[in-house]
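Appendix C: a fully annotated inverse folding record. The material below is reproduced so that readers can follow the format used throughout the book. The structure is listed first as tokens, followed by the designed sequence.
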């Protein structure tokens, strides 16, 4: 061993000296030809250097380094890193400062714009602090290559860019909030007749695709994904002879279809991405026409559904195939995919495929790094041939009907696997410690490990050695007893998502010191048998905490007030008692969802809800709260849903909530609310978007003022934006609510956005039923019973 490492060192020294030698030679030979820099250009570049700070986090590329650090006034600027001069004139004609860790704002008077001879400018992957692209870009009339991709530019793209008529390559992609004038793309298409490469992805161009774009006969690569394009994609695009890459994905309002006649079109289109558009696709004819495709993405597309065409197997050059989120059904024909031996990326998820996975098919796909079959109806056992796909990094088999046993040690073959999802099948996962936890075994280093519903009876021992987990899902298994101590110590630097809900766990093994888990953001312990509320106030970035449906008893400690970053807190369906701790009404500064329903809390509600509260939902139904409602609830301007049902509140109707601009659900039933609901003097107290109102089983009297409370006509909808939490895949996006309709209590896990429910039954309301209710659109349920109302349901119904 000593000998061989010696040899290695000798060899590397030899290589090193050759490189040094080579450098010297090159440097010398270049020195002799080096044109001298123009003084003005040297000082312009040095001033440019001064206008930014070097900041390693400003560039994402792993090989990024600050090229400008080496720029020194005592050498010719033509030798500087990233600078290119014209050999004859000495003018700076090229500047490649991509991934150069530049941070700072770009202004129109930046000295860069005095380098009027520039032909190539690459500033991609820096951080220009949301600057606009300066109009001084017009100073570069000779520019052929312009790349400002992924550099934190923003705002309006100046017209001047579309006038750089010599451009053959333009890349403005992946900047934040960048948008253009409606005519900009049209002007570009008319003027930049030499364009070969155009990448505008994620810029809001918000226009149709101008037909003049199809005159750009040199185009080889056209990338317009997520540009807000609408209207019809001109069919003549497919006739561009040189086109190799076409990506118009993520433009949902973009329509179009392939031309019937392809004569004269590109013989070798290599990459076609039409995902998330409304383009009409006939897969067999697409395959017939574009047989050289290496990349095909038609996720969320307008495809005539059915089984996969056999001819897919003819696309032998395919390396990337995304068919996800369509309605494909039937079995996967072996002969089809088995032929695609170069496939690296294969996504079949969210379709209606069924049958077994053809074992033979996978055997040929040895290059695969990404395989997703999730959310289909596949059944049968997990094919053994999967475990020969040594390059797999992502494997998603979740949400199918796979059955049988899977031995976890099989995954030892897949050393590159970082994402594994086996959840929601009928699988039984066997993890024998003797194989997985001995000194000779090296497990893959998982980042996402999702083993929901895999019939696990205990926490798999192999987790102990996982150091890089980001998300761990063990929900819906048969875990019981206590959560072992060592679970707190796995992947402490990375783990941000833990879901162990729907098991039979009863507690946490006591540990001397619980390590601060500063990265934990999502903890779901719901549907278990926990008896003690686990409070983790040291978690500074905690967003989601769900411990609903357990056996928690006792009072809630004031420590909960210190979980200041909570966004979602669910303690419902337990046996908690006592007053709520006095954290102030908002509980935590960032709380959006507060669910405490179905416990035995009592006392008054905490006072002092403050302006700037993020609360969207408060559900404290089925407790023993009493007294008046805190008037400061009117400060919760984001509140959409307030559920107070089944308590002992004694108060008049909260007209003062009528100013809340988002309030859609107000449930106050089964309390002791009383009095006449008077139309308020103030105009702005009109419950502008209220959809669901339940006042039943209270002591209200007098007339019920429909016109005032429902003046919003129910024209708005309840659907709301929960994207943030969806990332953490909790079943959000809709309200769940229990509604009693005709005496039958029903639980609606997802309330549709467009219905109106009114229940004022079992009060002492009196007077005529007003005609007005006939005007309410979308009324779905109306219960007026057990009051002293007269008249009939209005004829307008
Ligand atoms: C740029 O520098 C500013 C000020 O130092 C800093 O706040 C910001 O995070 C930096 N931006 C990036 C992307 O590094
Ligand atoms: C230029 O100056 C730097 C110090 O600022 C020095 O390290 C370098 O050797 C000098 N280069 C030449 C070519 O004189
Ligand atoms: C970023 O831009 C803002 C406002 O335009 C400015 O106040 C701030 O100083 C800039 N930061 C840097 C690092 O240039
Ligand atoms: C550019 O203009 C800003 C003011 O808009 C000024 O502060 C800055 O010094 C100017 N930079 C140069 C290089 O002239
Ligand atoms: C622009 O620069 C980025 C980062 O260096 C690179 O990935 C991209 O391919 C370039 N775009 C073009 C069109 O050359
Ligand atoms: C094309 O650009 C040139 C140079 O900036 C300009 O003079 C001309 O008006 C532009 N033509 C169109 C059609 O925009
Ligand atoms: C894009 O711009 C249009 C008009 O400029 C605007 O109506 C639209 O909301 C923008 N879209 C996005 C996603 O910003
Ligand atoms: C595997 O690839 C070979 C060569 O392309 C082909 O003949 C064979 O049918 C493929 N096997 C399967 C199961 O598709
Ligand atoms: C350790 O695990 C390997 C499989 O990875 C197995 O072959 C070996 O028998 C195990 N050793 C013991 C002592 O169980
Ligand atoms: C809450 O945090 C404060 C400091 O931020 C500390 O003084 C107090 O003891 C903490 N309360 C509990 C119950 O941990
Ligand atoms: C409700 O409150 C009243 C007094 O306000 C009290 O008499 C009654 O017992 C309470 N009911 C319940 C169920 O707690
Ligand atoms: C409700 O409908 C009436 C009549 O149709 C209309 O005048 C009023 O503006 C509508 N209110 C809202 C909030 O849309």
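Designed amino acids, in order:
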């Amino acid at each position: 061993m000593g000998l061989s490492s010696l040899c290695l060192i000798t060899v590397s020294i030899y290589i090193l000296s050759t490189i040094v030698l080579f450098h010297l030679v090159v440097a010398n030979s270049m020195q002799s030809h080096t044109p001298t820099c123009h003084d003005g250009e040297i000082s312009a570049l040095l001033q440019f250097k001064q206008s930014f700070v070097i900041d390693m986090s400003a560039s994402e590329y792993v090989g990024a380094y600050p090229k400008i650090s080496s720029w020194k006034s005592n050498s010719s600027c033509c030798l500087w890193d990233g600078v290119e001069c014209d050999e004859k004139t000495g003018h700076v004609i090229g500047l490649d400062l991509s991934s150069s860790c530049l941070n700072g704002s770009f202004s129109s008077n930046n000295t860069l714009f005095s380098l009027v001879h520039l032909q190539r400018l690459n500033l991609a992957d820096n951080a220009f602090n949301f600057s606009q692209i300066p109009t001084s870009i017009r100073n570069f009339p000779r520019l052929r290559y312009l790349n400002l991709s992924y550099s934190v530019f923003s705002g309006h793209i100046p017209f001047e860019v579309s006038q750089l008529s010599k451009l053959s390559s333009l890349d403005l992609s992946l900047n934040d909030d960048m948008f253009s004038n409606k005519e900009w793309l049209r002007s570009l298409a008319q003027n930049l007749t030499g364009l070969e490469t155009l990448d505008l992805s994620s810029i809001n161009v918000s226009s149709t695709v101008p037909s003049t774009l199809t005159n750009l006969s040199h185009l080889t690569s056209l990338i317009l994904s997520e540009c807000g394009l609408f209207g019809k994609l001109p069919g003549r695009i497919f006739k561009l002879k040189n086109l190799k890459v076409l990506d118009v994905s993520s433009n949902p309002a973009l329509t179009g279809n392939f031309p019937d006649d392809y004569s004269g079109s590109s013989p070798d289109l290599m990459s076609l991405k039409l995902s998330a558009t409304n383009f009409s696709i006939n897969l067999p004819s697409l395959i017939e026409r574009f047989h050289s495709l290496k990349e095909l993405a038609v996720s969320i597309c307008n495809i005539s559904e059915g089984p996969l065409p056999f001819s897919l197997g003819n696309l032998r050059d395919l390396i990337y195939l995304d068919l996800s989120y369509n309605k494909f059904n039937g079995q996967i024909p072996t002969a089809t995919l088995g032929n695609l031996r170069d496939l690296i990326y294969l996504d079949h998820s969210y379709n209606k495929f069924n049958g077994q996975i053809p074992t033979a098919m996978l055997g040929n796909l040895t290059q695969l790094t990404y395989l997703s079959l999730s959310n289909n109806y596949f059944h049968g056992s997990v094919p053994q041939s999967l475990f020969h796909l040594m390059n797999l990094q992502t494997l998603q088999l979740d949400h199918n009907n796979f059955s049988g046993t899977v031995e976890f040690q099989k995954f030892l073959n897949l050393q590159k696997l970082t994402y594994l999802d086996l959840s929601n099948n009928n699988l039984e996962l066997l993890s024998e410690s003797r194989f997985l936890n001995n000194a000779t075994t090296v497990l893959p280093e998982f980042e996402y490990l999702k083993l929901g519903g895999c019939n696990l009876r205990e926490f798999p021992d192999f987790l102990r050695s996982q150091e890089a987990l980001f998300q761990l899902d063990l929900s819906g298994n048969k875990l019981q007893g206590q959560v072992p101590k060592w679970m707190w110590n796995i992947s402490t630097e990375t783990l941000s998502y833990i879901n162990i809900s729907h098991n039979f766990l009863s507690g946490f093994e006591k540990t001397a010191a619980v390590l601060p888990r500063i990265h934990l953001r999502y903890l779901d312990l719901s549907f278990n048998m926990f008896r003690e509320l686990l409070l983790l106030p040291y978690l500074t970035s905690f967003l989601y905490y769900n411990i609903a449906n357990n056996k928690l008893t006792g009072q809630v400690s004031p420590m909960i007030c210190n979980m200041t970053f909570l966004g979602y807190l669910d303690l419902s369906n337990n046996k908690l008692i006592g007053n709520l701790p006095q954290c102030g009404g908002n509980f935590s500064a960032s709380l959006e969802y507060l669910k405490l329903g179905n416990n035995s809390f009592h006392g008054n509600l905490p006072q002092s809800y403050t302006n700037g509260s993020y609360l969207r939902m408060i559900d404290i139904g089925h407790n023993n709260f009493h007294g008046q409602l805190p008037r400061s609830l009117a400060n919760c301007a984001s509140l959409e849903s307030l559920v107070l049902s089944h308590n002992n509140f004694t108060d008049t109707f909260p007209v003062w909530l009528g100013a809340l601009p988002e309030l859609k659900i107000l449930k106050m039933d089964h309390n002791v609310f009383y009095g006449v609901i008077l139309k308020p003097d103030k105009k702005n107290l009109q419950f502008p978007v209220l959809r669901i109102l339940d006042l039943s089983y209270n002591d209200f009297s007098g007339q019920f003022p429909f016109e005032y409370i429902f003046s919003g006509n129910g024209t708005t909808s309840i659907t709301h934006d929960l994207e943030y939490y969806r990332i953490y895949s909790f079943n959000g996006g809709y309200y769940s609510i229990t509604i009693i309709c005709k005496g039958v209590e029903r639980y609606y896990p997802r309330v549709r956005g467009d219905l109106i429910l009114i229940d004022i039954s079992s009060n002492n309301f009196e007077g005529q039923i007003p005609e007005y209710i006939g005007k309410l659109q979308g009324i779905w349920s109306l219960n007026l019973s057990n009051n002293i109302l007269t008249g009939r349901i209005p004829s307008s119904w």
